[in-house]
Fold this sequence. Notes:
By secondary structure, the protein is of the alpha+beta class. It folds into two domains: about 5-120, PAS domain (Beta-Lactamase); about 125-225, PAS domain (Beta-Lactamase, 2-Layer Sandwich), CATH 3.30.450.20. Helix content is about 35%, strand content about 25%. Strands 2-1-5-4-3 form a five-stranded antiparallel β-sheet. A two-stranded antiparallel sheet has the order 6-7. The radius of gyration is 28 Å and the shape is elongated. The relative contact order is 0.09.
Amino acid sequence: TATAPILAVDYNGLVNGWNAKVAELTGLPVGEAMGMSLVQDLVFEESVERVEKMLHNALRGEEEKNVEMMLKTFGPQKEKEAVILVVNACSSRDFTDNIVGVCFVGQDVTSQKVVMDKFIRIQGDYRSIVQSPNPLIPPIFASDEYACCSEWNAAMEKLTGWSHDEVIGKMLVGEIFGGCCRLKGQDAVTKFTIVLHSAIDGQEIEKFPFAFFDKQGKYVEALLTA
Length: 226
């Protein structure tokens, strides 16, 4: 039995092949899938244009690879919003070499796609928060994996007196905190370094007491959460 989801349609785009794997993923039994229109009955609206184009090309002998296809779910799989396949289209030919349909061999990428979409959405939410001038947004700065400053929002500019452009790309320890924003002695530098690298390694930090001197030399006390 094939572990890859495989489906096929005739020249009119009606299903004439539906293997056990695609039946399992979609919840639609083989017997029910047969004769259904791939484009009208089984594919999500977002995929219709892509699938129609792929079908049209394959029926002319132009086989496309790695095309995303979103299939509807049925019965026991209904709680899943969609099954997302990346498919290769193969033209099906009869014994006289005429194209009589199209076969699609797929790879199920539903879980990866869901995670990726969620990540992109979180990134979008995160960016809109960081870049918001709303006074209710707290001071936020961010580090890349090398402990260089990758974000510095409007509230952070106001708190420190240092602008976004003055600090982006600089080392958070030494150049920014311990440089632009002076810290009280080496002990403060060491503690901040430990907290920063712990956060980069994935540890969450709650309300770490953090103090520095702003651009005007005023002593600022804050609580750091990472």
